[in-house]
Amino acid sequence: MFTHYSPWRVWKSFRLLLTVFMTVRRKERFLFMRPLSPAALKQTILDLGVCHIKMAQVLATRADFFTEDYLEELRTIHDEVEPMAQKDFQVMFQRAFGEAPPFAEFEETPLASASIGQVHKARLKDGTQVAVKIRRLGILQGVLADIRLVTFFLRMFQPFFSRYTKNSLEAVLKEFTSMIKKEVDMAIEADHLRKFRETYGHCDVRIPGFFPEYSSPDALVMTFEQGVRVDDKERLAALNIDFRDVMARLIDFYTEQMLIKGFFHADPHPGNVLVAEDGTLTILDFGMVKRLPASMRLAMIELVQAAHEQDFESFIGACKRMGVVAASAPESQMQELAERLFDIFGNESLNAASMQSLALDVLDSMKELPFKLPQDVVYVMRASALIEGLGTSFIENFNGVKDVLPVLKRNMYRALGAEAKLFPTLGGEIKALPLTVRRFKAVLTDLSDGTLRVRLSPETLELVSDGVLKRLKPLGLAALFILAAFFIQGYSFRGSGWIAAVLFAFGAIRLYLGVK
User: Fold this and answer.
1) ∠ CA(418), CA(419), CA(422), 5° rounding?
2) Under a CB-based contact definition with an 8 Å cutoff, are residues 391 and 247 in contact?
């Protein structure tokens, strides 16, 4: 236990979170210390291991937190570490499979080794070739200890953040904590595999099978899948695979996941996507899986459609419903932002790199707007970054929105639900009429009894709280001046009367201006 909280680890974790705090607040110094350089930050994360590596992969998507030099270093952090010591491996193998393991052959040298576990090639006694994922010894205890450290230091720095940034950081930590606890449990990953195979069995994508009778929280036994990494351009070309077809399948599948079913693979990177000789995609590693609520999916659909049609009002409305922009954001500035972004992404003479550079310049020029990134949106951005990154690397002037839109249009009714069609809608409304009448009667009863409750949307609550805080802030300052005046008046020293009078006058003026 002591090793998890050694002075070295506590200090490194403190320096890491202090650097996050200073880069978010754009501070050059705090507590007589400077932030770690991008290279030093990366090395600190690698030194701290599992939990911090996973957190860095989430932070690498947060352009609202970090400058580009930090993001470049964070994006190069890969979840690849040395294999377990042989002694640790033997302990975990024995724990997972007991005295009578089900394998005729088992390669002890791993095919891949990551921070949470490692994958081995094996053959079952019936001849079936399998991949065996075994988690590291003590990984759960280490992750929980790191989460406590990160939580402690973030709480220490939170009072210094703005409300929007604080909410975003809290969302990152809460979501990250939830996801990594699930990721270290192989039984949860097995359940994700089962659900994915049930949900997406109709798609032109291969998802590994698994063997529940041999799997446990310590190990996952899956079918062995072969293929070429989706970003291996030379090998794909050697197999005569058209990359445009690969991209079309990938876009189809992620559109199905994120906009239609709302159940998606949340750890997308090229190492987790293989391409078979016939062009079929295979998706690997289901430790991180997310569900998107229907309200978020509908807002995303509206956002994509508004971006294509350059509908400013719908675009801004969708951003607010997604929680990306605070409800209090000025409409005029948001419309200006939307117009400038639409001009950039609608310019077909620009390549992808130029588009991204110009868009970042626009966002930087309007950084005072109350933007925030809910964690659901961050996971969607990670998936979008995979598609955009592959597309811009292999296809000239690739534009993600333009390529997603035709897929979305083909599946619009499925994305919105069957009820989006006219006759099912009418039928559904007629069937629901008795329930609607009962609800209306219940509302009237509550109104007459004085027990009616009104539930406001998060956007409305945010707008109301912003207005209340804006009104209360000057009143609080006025009360502080007036209280200080009475406090000083209670002491008899030279000039106390004048000081009290000045403070009281300031407080009275502030109070008058606040209520005016």
Assistant:
1) 105
2) yes
Residue type, 330: P
Q: How confident is the model at residue 420 (pLDDT cuts 50, 70, 90)?
A: very low
Mean pLDDT, rounded, of the chain:
78
* Encoded tokens for 304: 């994509």
Find the DSSP H helices in 98-185. 139-157, 163-183
**How far apart are the C-alpha atoms of 449 and 247, rounded to whole Å?**
60
Segment 65-93 shows an average pLDDT of 83
Mean pLDDT of 480-505: 77
What residue type is assigned to position 109 of the chain?
T
Strand order in 273-275's β-sheet?
205-206, 281-283, 273-275, 228-229
Task: Answer whether 253's CB lies under 8 Å from 205's CB.
Answer: yes
Residue 275 pairs in a beta bridge with: 228, 281
> What is the share, in percent, of the chain residues with pLDDT greater than 70?
70
Question: In the 8-state DSSP scheme, what is residue 445?
Answer: H
For 183-221, give one letter per residue: b (16+ CB within 10 A) or e: bbbbebbbbbbeebeebbeebebbbbebbeebbbbbbbb
Q: What are phi and psi of 225, to 5 degrees?
A: -110, 140
According to DSSP, the residues that pair with 134 across neighbouring strands are 118, 219
Whether the CB-CB separation of 202 and 292 falls below 8 Å is answered with no
How many angstroms separate the CA atoms of 434 and 395, rounded?
Answer: 55
The Cα-based distances of 448 to 157, 224, 312, 439, 454 in angstroms read 49, 66, 43, 14, 14
Q: Is the dihedral of CA 493, 495, 497, 500 positive or negative?
A: negative
Amino acid at 474: P
d(Cα 78, Cα 167) in Å, to the nearest integer?
A: 27
Write out the two tokens for 321: 């419903």
Alpha carbons 18 and 95: distance in angstroms, whole number:
39
Query: How wide is the angle at C-alpha 276 spanned by C-alphas 270 and 281, nearest 5°?
Result: 55
